[in-house]
Design goal:
It is globular, with a radius of gyration of 24 Å. It has nine helices and 13 strands. Helix 3 crosses helix 4. A hairpin with a 2-residue loop joins strand 11 and strand 12. It is 34% helix and 27% strand.
Length: 315
């Protein structure tokens, strides 16, 4: 398990030092300082043959992030914007009317944009805490598994919140001003997806993702028209539930966190935004007689153009 120290890049340190609310002092005091007396990080140094506790911090962070990435389907459903402030104002352009140069602009020109404020209002944490005896005696891969589980739970919560954002859009605000009922009650077909794709296109957007429950994915694999329109591309990750594209240009993203009877077709570049204020962060943590790590994440979510989403229901 030994690794080349010269080749090692401590992504955790870089993230902490770069964060304006944390910085170099926090890294030295709250991370390195606390890790020196934390039995979990002492165990990490032993297992990975590390001489520097800062590398042990970085190693646990890498374990957590790698595990979270395997669950990161939510980030495929939305525009992700890293931020350093607690609120961002988005300026959304409105369709105006062109005027002839020879006539000049009208005396009163209305605003060509509207604004949407999105705040960083979500913050979650999950700990992997153990007694000192547990940390000393249990197999190390069991400890690593607990850290992985903590990170994956945070990523799952992120996906839940993104799904809730889309499912919370009222029917009248969707593309076409209404939900689309499946042609056959209880079954999703390729024709339903084509209708939703057309509805989003008519609203002036280009849908690139279909958010589908596994039950409905099963329906599609029994639909010859879907099978013939589907192909696997470079960005396929079946393990995460990100399937290939259709010839209409949208991917199928499968998640059991969405409602089984609803499918959303989304232009992810226009519909909504994820403000990522603090991506998954791991740091030393202790409570009473237990020690370990705590994983945290902080972000904001907001709908920008709700009519860049179509919803199929009763499928």
């Amino acid at each position: 398990m030994e690794e080349n120290v010269l080749d090692y890049r401590n992504l955790l340190k870089e993230a902490v030092v770069r964060d304006p609310d944390l910085g170099e002092h926090t890294w030295k005091e709250s991370f390195v300082g606390k890790a020196r007396s934390n039995v979990l990080f002492q165990r990490v140094m032993k297992e990975y043959v590390l001489s520097d506790v800062a590398q042990a911090l970085g190693k646990m962070h890498d374990v957590a992030v790698e595990a979270a990435q395997k669950m990161a389907v939510g980030r495929d459903l939305i525009w992700v914007v890293p931020v350093t402030s607690p609120k961002v104002r988005f300026y959304l352009s409105k369709r105006g009317t062109a005027w002839r140069i020879s006539d000049g602009p009208p005396l009163q020109t209305s605003e060509h944009f509207e604004t949407v404020d999105v705040s960083v209002s979500y913050e979650y944490g999950y700990d992997a805490l153990f007694s000192q005896a547990y940390l000393e005696d249990v197999p190390f891969n069991v400890i690593e598994r607990a850290v992985r589980d903590a990170a994956q739970l945070l990523e799952e919560q992120l996906t839940k919140d993104i799904v809730s954002l889309y499912e919370g859009i009222s029917a009248g605000d969707l593309a076409g001003g209404a939900e689309i009922s499946a042609d056959t009650n209880g079954t999703l077909s390729w024709a339903d997806l084509v209708e939703a794709w057309t509805t989003v296109r008519k609203a002036g957007y280009t849908p690139d993702v279909a958010m589908v429950h596994p039950d409905q994915v099963a329906d599609l694999w029994n639909d010859d028209k879907f099978i013939h329109s589907f192909y696997f591309g470079d960005k396929v990750d079946v393990g995460r539930g990100v399937l290939g594209e259709t010839y209409l240009g949208f991917r199928i993203v499968e998640t059991d966190l969405c409602t089984a009877t609803k499918v959303h077709l989304i232009d992810t570049s226009k519909a909504a935004v994820l403000l990522l204020r603090r991506d998954i962060l791991t740091q030393p943590y202790e409570e009473r007689l237990s020690q370990g790590v705590i994983c945290t994440i902080r972000y904001g979510l907001g709908a920008l153009r709700k009519d860049a989403v179509a919803r199929i229901v009763n499928c």
